[in-house]
Amino acid sequence: MQLAHTIAELNQALASADADGKRVGFVPTMGALHAGHLSLVKKAQELDLFVVVSVFVNPRQFGHGDDLTNYPRTLGVDARVLTDAGVDILFAPSGSEVYPSSGVEEISAGELGNRFEGASRPGHFDGMLTVVNRLFNLVQPDVAFFGSKDAQQLVLVSQMVKRQVANGDREPIKIVACDTVRDESGLALSSRNQRIARDLLPAAQTISTALFAGSKKPSKQACIEAAKAELDPKIRLDYIELVNPDTFEVVESCEGSRMVIAARVGEVRLIDNLLLGGFA
């Protein structure tokens, strides 16, 4: 694996992929890697891509009072994990490499960026899209991989790329959504999970239990009521809703919708979702 801290080092490392005629697969992360991230890497490798993983804790997607200071930073461990996984390039840039004094395009998430996660974390999605756009410009991937746990992020990134391609501002990038990876209890893997107090883990695990309980009901009201009934009393619910998987518009039908949830477990804020099927 080649480690690149600067854009110049990244370009030099990418030259080997170009020389070999390899298509580039990109997995953007904020580090503290877990099996969910590695599932994205594996998917890229299955497609025989030259795999680039970025590790950059993006300050622009953390709002006032958010957990930027406490966000885990484990670059040494991450590098060893990615080496073992057979990744081709680890791009771990500094803030000044990603955000020079000028020349970075600011991306707005628009109205959708102010709903759900955006309502709880103002400016989060503007910062996320700005850094993803910047990383896309640096890495120039053919395919990019995102986990479905961050479903609203996935929709916004897909919309951004489609808009840019339609405007002639970017070559097409295929956005691949990968399934959420869960632990044995059903808890969706997240870098934030390591900050959950041990005595609150059982409460956190009821978030996924709630989703699966709701998925068995045929009406929206029954779906949401069944989900809420499964949540541990220690959970502080932020929102639970049914949305269109492609647009994140609120829907009234369970069939084909995505059930999304956000809640706090102690001081840790978790999100999860589940795609609902049809009902007999």
Structure notes:
The protein is an alpha/beta fold and 280 residues long. The chain folds into two domains: 2-178, Rossmann fold (3-Layer(aba) Sandwich); 191-273, Pantoate-beta-alanine ligase, C-terminal domain (Pantoate--beta-alanine Ligase, Chain: A,domain 2, 2-Layer Sandwich), CATH 3.30.1300. The protein contains nine helices and nine strands. It has helices at residues 7-19, 35-46, 75-85, 95-98, 117-120, 124-139, 151-166, 201-214, 220-230; strands at residues 2-4, 24-29, 50-55, 89-91, 143-147, 174-178, 236-243, 258-265, 268-275. Strands 1-4-3-2-5-6 form a six-stranded parallel β-sheet, sandwiched between helices. The protein has a three-stranded antiparallel β-sheet with strand order 7-8-9, covered by helices on one side. Helix 6 (124-139) packs across helix 7 (151-166). It is globular and about 55 Å long. The model has no long low-confidence stretch (mean pLDDT 95).
